[in-house]
Amino acid sequence: MDSKTPVTILQELLLKKKINPTYNLILNGGGTHEPIFKYEVAAADQTAIGTGKSKKEAKHNAANELLRIMKATDSAIHSLSDDVTSPYEGVLKENAVGELQDFCCTHRLRFPEYKLTRDEGLPHAKVFSWSCTISSFTTEATARTKKNAKQMAAQEMLLRLKDCLSDIIETEEALQTRSSPSKDVEMNEAVDLAIQKISDHIKTVNASEKLGVNISDVCFSMKDENLPDLPFLDSLKDRESSWFDTRDEDDIKDIFSKIAEEIPCDYKLNTVDSSDVSKVAVVLIVNSSPSWTFIAVGSSLHDAVKNVFTEAVKFMVKMRL
Fold it and tell me: How many CB atoms are closer than 10 A to CB 312?
């Protein structure tokens, strides 16, 4: 029986109990060229969900997950081999974590934050879940290994971002071309000077101290000596993060406008499609040097706009700390 697929094994086990499993497709590809599918399988009072890059893969994973649940709760099938796995399980088709990191760099998004949210099961039948969060967006995936779960969460986030940003990439590129040449020259000179300072410092320290020199040192050198004074932005550095969260929409937009005028930079606000129909998603593109993109969601357009400007202001303040 071990050579059979999870769908076949589940069907045979349930037929002995005169139960027919029902499968429901709950996510049909996500509308992208790299689709993600989700199937839910139900039998009696037990359900399980499987995710995959094809309907067949998702269905197998759902059946496999339900088999694990049944084995833990039904003594009649304890003899089921632990080696029964989906033919797709363990096959990572690409490095989604790395691709997501590159995507965030390219489009100046906040880097993803990963969190292990589930670590359950017997030592020989572990189940892991990882969440991936960027701004207000969160995805989560479950697999039998931590690596697979993290990759799947990253992959789902990547597909979601590509779907959201597909309509505004052209706008972002247009804003990039309007960047001031003189500002770029000044920034390049600042970078060169900062890198030279770091290089000079490395030459004067021993090997153990060299390990502490990293890219953040370059940022601090640029910030302290080479960037222009930004008195209004600097006046916000002593504010607690929660203070920005309590500002209303008009107040936080006014704060952001003053910062944008002081830098100076222009910006563009766009609404984007959200996979959750109960939420509104917006993207704020800030054409500074470098440019940045912020994404936020809310229960209404006003909430989403407030959240995205709050995200941008908090980020800019943090960069000056």
Answer: 23
- Nearest 5°: phi and psi at 119? -145, 90
pLDDT number for residue 306:
92
Looking only at the bridges linking them, the beta strands covering 280-287 and 266-272 are antiparallel
- Which helix H or strand E contains 49, and what residues bound it? strand 46-52
C-alpha span between 259 and 282 (Å, rounded): 20
Residue 98 tokens read as 């790395």
| Residue 114 pLDDT grade (very low, low, confident, very high; cuts 50, 70, 90) | very high
Residue that is last in its domain, among 77, 106, 123: 77
Q: Which residues of 12-32 are buried (b: 16+ CB within 10 A; e: fewer)?
A: ebbeeeeeebebeeebebbee
H or E element in which residue 141 lies: strand 137-143
What residue numbers bound the domain in which 134 lies? 96-165
User: Which of 19, 49, 77 finishes a domain?
Assistant: 77
> What's the pLDDT band for 1 if we cut at 50, 70, 90?
very low
Can you tell me the distance from the alpha carbon of 175 to that of 179, in angstroms, rounded to the nearest whole number? 7
The verdict on 156 and 244 lying in the same domain is: no
Residue 54 is which amino acid?
S
Residue 296 above 90 pLDDT? no
- Whether 220 shows a pLDDT value over 60: the answer reads no
Only one residue has tokens 């990882």, namely: 130
pTM, rounded to two decimals: 0.42
Instruction: Kindly state whether residues 112 and 246 are assigned to the same domain.
Output: no
Sheet holding 280-287, edge to edge: 266-272, 280-287, 292-298
Q: Token digits for 186?
A: 């000044």
* DSSP H or E stretch at residue 113: strand 113-120
Residue 188 lies in a domain: yes
| Residue 247 DSSP code | S
Tokens representing 180? 């001031």
